[in-house]
Each structure stands twice: as structure tokens, then as C-alpha cells.
Amino acid sequence: MTDAHRAPHPSMTTHQWTISLPDQPATHQLGVQLGQLLLAGSTLLLNGNLGSGKTTLVQGIGAGLGITEPIVSPTFTLISEYFEGRLPLYHLDLYRLQPPEVNELHLEVYWEAGEYPLGIVAIEWAERLPEPPPDCLQIRLTSLPNGRQADFSASGAFHQQALQQLQASFPQP
Question: Could you report the per-residue pLDDT of 49-89, keeping only the tens digit for each?
Fold first, then answer.
């Protein structure tokens, strides 16, 4: 990531935001907005129970990027790469792995400039990352009796700005 996109030393402060999502289409639409807004180098850490909407959110991100290929959770393949949109989308699923196994994958190659073109990295079951990137957007999805809730926490100036832009695109209650 170039210094134009990230501060040299990510800020330890975070920006937080919570939004209620009444149904699956609302979760997908949130993803579409993220896909349209996010820049190359965005890293999303997705957490939540089974069925909380992590894959639905990533499907929306893909749609927002212009990806028409079906996006499914890479639970068994671990990593799916999509290059047809305006930015590459790297969709990772760590559900079946333990932290030591995650370390062996060297996933940082997806969010550090170098081996892969910078794109959007979306990691399901990100709590299994032993060392998450310091500059990231964490999204916790929670199933509720009347829909879902998405809790955002952005670390680093790059992702804090993205979250502020996303929040500004939603009407205030």
C-alpha cells in the first residue's frame, strides 16, 4: 500500500459505527455500497456466527465491484480470487482452520503490496487470524430476532476514512 493511501504508522484510534439490517437483501445492499466505495488495499475482517450474513455481505461487495461470477463461501478451498470487477476481490474463509494453520498460509501477501495486485480482501472468520493487519475494517454481523446488526470498527486512517464515507451514505435515523 502506498503512503498516499495509508499513513506510515496506522493510528491506534478507531472509528466505530453500528447499523441495523432488517433482512438478507439489506445485508447484500450494504455489501454493494462497500464494493462501490472501497479502494484497493481495503482489508475487511468479518466475524459472526454461522448464518449471520458474512457471505451475503461479500456477495454484495462483489456486486458493487461489478463481479458477475457467483460468489460462494470458500470454506473448503479457503481462498477465492475474483479479477473481473473494478478491483480484485480476495475472499478468504478461515472457518476450518486453527491459528497455527492460518499462519502457514502467509495471508499478508493479499493486503501488502507485492505478490498480488492490491484489491479488497474479505476474510470470513477473521478471529482465527493470529496477527490481523493493523489497518483494517472489522465487521461483526449478529443475527437478531428482527434481522441483523453490523458493528463496524475501523483501525488506521485509510479504513477510518472509508467507514466515515460509508456511514455518511446512510440516512441518519
Answer: 988 899 999 999 999 999 999 998 877 788 899 999 999 99
Q: Domains of the chain (ranges plus CATH)?
A: 24-140 (3.40.50.300)
Strand-strand pairing, 120-124 and 42-47 = parallel
Alpha-carbon torsion (67, 7, 2, 121), positive or negative:
negative
Write the Ramachandran bin of 101: left for phi over 0, alpha for psi from -120 to 50, otherwise beta: alpha
Cell numbers linked to 17: 459505527
Please state, in angstroms and rounded to a whole number, the distance separating the CA atoms of residues 124 and 13. Answer: 23
Alpha carbon of 111 to those of 30, 84, 90, 120, 173: distances in Å?
22, 19, 9, 8, 34
pLDDT at 13: 56
Taking the C-alpha atoms of residue 72 and residue 168, their distance in angstroms, rounded to an integer, is 29
Residue 126 one-letter amino acid: A
> Where residue 1 falls among pLDDT bands split at 50, 70, 90?
very low
- Mean pLDDT in residue range 102-122: 84
Residue 35 parent element (H or E): helix 24-37
